[in-house]
Write a structure and sequence with these properties.
- The chain is mainly beta.
- It has one domain (about 20-180).
- The chain is about 10% helix and about 40% strand.
- It has two helices and eleven strands, in the order ββββββαβββββα.
- The protein has a seven-stranded mixed beta sheet with strand order 2-3-11-8-7-1-4. Strands 5-6-10-9 form a four-stranded antiparallel beta sheet, with no helix packed on it.
- β5 (about 65-70) and β6 form a beta hairpin.
- It is globular, with a radius of gyration of 17 Å.
- The chain starts with about 20 loop residues before the first strand and ends with a helix.
Length: about 180
């Protein structure tokens, strides 16, 4: 069957590249229709924002956001991945609250803790977007912080567990993201 892809390399542990828990305290958010990405399998080698548009940043403290994926396994379809991104917001003003209340169909780029090598910038929702699936805020819970969760919609999951954003090296990739902010 053409949909089944064989394993193409060893699945080995490299003790010199030990994973580290967590994300750096900054993420970049793009509106889905305001950026074009260049793909090579599960690597994004370039991203270009639409003229006049910008990325938005989310900055906070340790563990204020989380990102990952969950395999959606089916008997009659290839495995796909539900991308997930959650963030705590300290939104207080009417404009800040309206902004998070209306957020949908976004792409999230996060930087994982650890070495500054290929694989440190991960992109979630790059092909089908992330859509709000929960938003909670209670005055007496979690210091009244709003927790927002975005994920792939059912039937719109992604082909890979995450996409790696990598343009030549760490400095070039970080510069690509930083310049997207303007």
């Amino acid at each position: 069957m053409a949909c089944i892809t064989p394993v193409t390399a060893d699945l080995a542990y490299d003790c010199t590249k030990r994973p580290v828990k967590g994300l750096k305290p900054k993420a970049w958010i793009f509106n889905m229709n305001e950026v074009t990405m260049t793909y090579s399998t599960n690597t994004i080698t370039n991203l270009v924002k639409v003229t006049g548009k910008t990325s938005f940043t989310v900055e906070g403290f340790k563990d204020f956001m989380n990102a990952g994926s969950e395999a959606v396994i089916s008997e009659n379809f290839p495995t796909v991945y539900k991308h997930k991104w959650t963030v705590d917001s300290f939104a207080a003003t009417a404009a800040e609250r309206a902004n998070i209340d209306k957020a949908d169909n976004i792409i999230a780029v996060v930087e994982v803790n650890g070495s500054q090598t290929e694989g440190c910038f991960l992109v979630y929702g790059s092909k089908n977007g992330l859509w709000k699936d929960a938003q909670t805020q209670m005055a007496n819970d979690n210091n009244a912080v709003t927790n927002i969760s975005f994920s792939s919609r059912t039937g719109m999951e992604e082909e890979y567990s995450a996409y790696v954003l990598w343009k030549t090296d760490y400095a070039t990739t970080l510069a690509l993201l930083t310049t997207s902010e303007t």
